[in-house]
Amino acid sequence: MINVSAILTPCPAKSISNADKKSLAIKAIAGEQTISAIANDYQVSRKFVSTQKQKVLSAVNEAFDEKADGDKVLYQIPVTKNWLKQCVISFTLDCRSSVRGIIKSMSNLFDFKCSLGNVCNIIQSIIPTAKNINENQDISNIKLCAQDEMFQHNQPVLTGVDIPSLYCYLLSLNEQRDGDTWAIHLLDLQKQGFNPERVFADDGSGLRAGHQYVFPNVPCDADHFHISKDLMDLRRYFRNRLKSSISHRILMESKMNELADTARAAKQEKKVAQAKEKETKFRYLSETMDTVTVQALLRQ
């Protein structure tokens, strides 16, 4: 005869909650009770208790396994063509990678083959969008800025940077760097609200002429970089001349020692005296330039 009540009574192992499973597993790991005693307390089999114990131990081992943590998938993202284009742009602007470096990175990271022409086309395709964004930027908050000229393939690149934020509000490749070219770009910037309180620049004639035309009442001070660079170059020149004079004096002295007690010794001694005099002169000039350069840099 079939025991209907036994069939309808749920299995304790199936009805036990997750909290109780964790509790019995911790007790089994602690070892304060035997597996059999724990199974009797929860009305489950010894095998069930051992299974829960092993689950908890596996979870603990996985949590403290450095190798497993390194291979754990943090998140997944859908990779589309637009997403790959974003990667190319990010490598270009954020990482400042070369075109061939981008190709190598795309291959190594994503197993995606990207041609040289494709990378160049992606970069070129964002220029109109970037230009439109730049032309609509409100730059009225720029009050303290620096302007200069760089060169790309022997062509001038007119540049302007907001000093506090380092925001580049001007970066334009041109054929000329005369006053008219500077004035045109400054007038375009003026339409975007550009009205600085003070500008720092070198003494480039075109730059200063354009600035004077557009912003006649805004001071354009000389930057310290070019002055410091000239001083450093001059100091390096006199240091090198001092080293050369020392080498020359040592050479003359060695020749005089070789010609000792000969008729030519007196003539060589005169050359040594001249070499020492030259060394003394350049030592004085070198030390003077060191002092002048240090004082100039400290006053900046």
Short recap of the structure:
The protein is α/β, with parallel strands linked by helices. The protein has helices spanning 4-8, 12-15, 18-30, 35-42, 46-63, 66-70, 81-93, 99-110, 116-125, 127-135, 179-191, 205-214, 224-258, 265-298, and strands at 144-152, 155-162, 168-173, 198-201, 220-222.
Molecular structure report:
- This protein is of the alpha/beta class and 300 residues long.
- It has four domains: 10-70; 81-131; 140-222, Nucleotidyltransferase, domain 5, CATH 3.30.420.10; 225-298.
- Helix content is 63%, strand content 10%.
- The protein has 14 helices and five strands.
- The protein has helices at residues 4-8, 12-15, 18-30, 35-42, 46-63, 66-70, 81-93, 99-110, 116-125, 127-135, 179-191, 205-214, 224-258, 265-298, and strands spanning 144-152, 155-162, 168-173, 198-201, 220-222.
- Strands 3-2-1-4-5 form a five-stranded mixed sheet, covered by helices on one side.
- The protein is flat and about 120 Å long.
- The termini are far apart.
- Mean pLDDT is 86; it is low at 1-8.
Keywords:
disordered N terminus, 300 residues, flat, 4 domains, five-stranded mixed beta sheet, alpha/beta, Nucleotidyltransferase, domain 5, 14 helices
β content, as a range? 5-15%
Q: Which shape, going by the Cα principal axes?
A: flat
CATH arch. level architecture of the largest domain: 2-Layer Sandwich
Largest sheet: 5 strands, mixed
- The topology string of helices and strands comes to HHHHHHHHHHEEEHEHEHH
Order of strands across the biggest sheet? Answer: 3-2-1-4-5
Helix-strand category? alpha/beta
Looking at CATH, the homologous superfamily of the largest domain is: Ribonuclease H-like superfamily/Ribonuclease H
